[in-house]
Amino acid sequence: MYEFFVHKTEPSFRLTVQQGAPFPIQSQIESWVHTRTRTDDDTSPDVVGAIDEMGYCLFRIGFRFEDVHLT
């Protein structure tokens, strides 16, 4: 199971962690609002892979191409 959060003051930022895992030390849980819990089969493999690698998946909704430097 995975827990999904939205940042309280920067709502374009989303965070996903595995249920029961420690919250990332880079942030405080009080800064986030829990939005949903999803099963493994209802969570993107890319999100699961990031959590397996880093312990969390942090992403931003509404990125524009102007925000990213792709070549």
Textual characterization of the structure:
- With 71 residues, the chain is α+β, with helices and mostly antiparallel strands.
- 14% of the residues lie in helices and 32% in strands.
- It contains one helix and four strands, in the order βββαβ.
- Strands 3-1-2-4 form a four-stranded antiparallel beta sheet.
- The mean pLDDT is 93.
Entry keywords:
4 strands; 71 residues; 14% helix; four-stranded antiparallel beta sheet; alpha+beta; single chain
Write the layout of secondary structure elements.
Blueprint: E1 2-7, E2 13-18, E3 32-38, H1 45-54, E4 57-60
Distance, first to last CA: 36 Å
Structural class: alpha+beta
Q: Please, how many helices? A: 1
Q: What's the mean pLDDT score?
A: 93
The backbone outline, from C-alpha atoms, is globular
Parts with pLDDT < 50 across at least 5 consecutive residues: none
Radius of gyration: 13 Å
Give a concise summary:
The chain has 71 residues and is α+β, with helices and mostly antiparallel strands.
